[in-house]
Amino acid sequence: MAQQKEPVLVTGGSGYLGAHVVARLLRDGYAVRTTVRSPERAAEVREAVAEDGDLEFVAAELGSDEGWVEAVAGCAYVLHVASPFPAVPPERDEDVIVPARDGALRVLRAARDAGVRRVVLTSSFAAVGYGRKPGNTYDETDWTDPAADNSAYIRSKAIAERAAWDFVREGGPELTVINPTGIFGPLLVPRVSASPGHVKAMLDGDLPVAPPYWFGVVDVRDVADLHVRAMTEPAAAGERFLASGERAVSFLEIARVLARRLGERAARVPTRELTLEEVRANPALKDVELRYGRVPVISTAKARKVFGWQPRDVETTIVDTAESLARWGLLTD
């Protein structure tokens, strides 16, 4: 095992990305503390990361001040990965926006008060690329307008990230922000998060027709890698970094990858896309309608230059997602 390095706090270690970040840090020899919503999650995380090393747990939630002083105490770095994600569209936009913004500020405030050196915040491409732009080409200089006609979740990511930058400008720890596109790849814990849930829905036959929507795909292992690199790289201070694969894909293209690579196991994946009229008839597909016909071109040149970062190819990531869902027994027979 590598010589132990400075202690790191990872928020949301029982989550999809959080578990991968914890596992990577332990492999790299860091002492890791992670927040969980309840102590019962600790055993699950230990089993998931399958790494020997210095790992401890603190119960803390983004909606409460309780536990955060203990969580950040003695840590040199904080990787703020945890973020609320609505399972269904909220009744009020504020039900998503307020927890995302206030949770990020709560973590940053605790980090500042504890003398943490740097916070790496997981934001999203949602904070970058949900505005109309000629050519639909996006890089880290772009911002989604929080007042634009987007879903509550997309607005929450832009609002929370802007609030974080405003906070550190007034005096706080160094801040680096990672803006991933749709995160796919193998699961370390037996719960299906948002993006892998799309693959599960296709394989289970719960998504019989594909939404006509193009988006970036990035592997969860590569996003974890980028967080750890961003934690200590001097050139990353005060910067944001897009994380995505080589090109955008559509739901229908993902379905075709599954059919080609999995054969009979993918017999229920969709074979056609919804029409624009069908999209307009479903209020839950508001974001799909707003971006109909738009294929984003997402630049990751900055991450590649600063970190030498090389993401996996999209097809490998999609297939690894499906195989992981099967191993966990999460697919419908």
Automatic annotation (TrEMBL):
UniProt KW Oxidoreductase keyword: yes
Pfam families reported in the protein's UniProt record: Epimerase
Annotated ranges, domain Ketoreductase: 6-186
Alphabetical UniProt keywords: Oxidoreductase
Family matches, as SMART domains: PKS_KR (SM00822)
Membrane-spanning parts: none
Keyword Oxidoreductase: yes
GO molecular function terms noted in the UniProt entry: oxidoreductase activity, acting on the CH-OH group of donors, NAD or NADP as acceptor
Superkingdom as given in the UniProt entry: Bacteria
Family per record: Belongs to the NAD(P)-dependent epimerase/dehydratase family. Dihydroflavonol-4-reductase subfamily.
Protein name in the entry: Dihydroflavonol-4-reductase
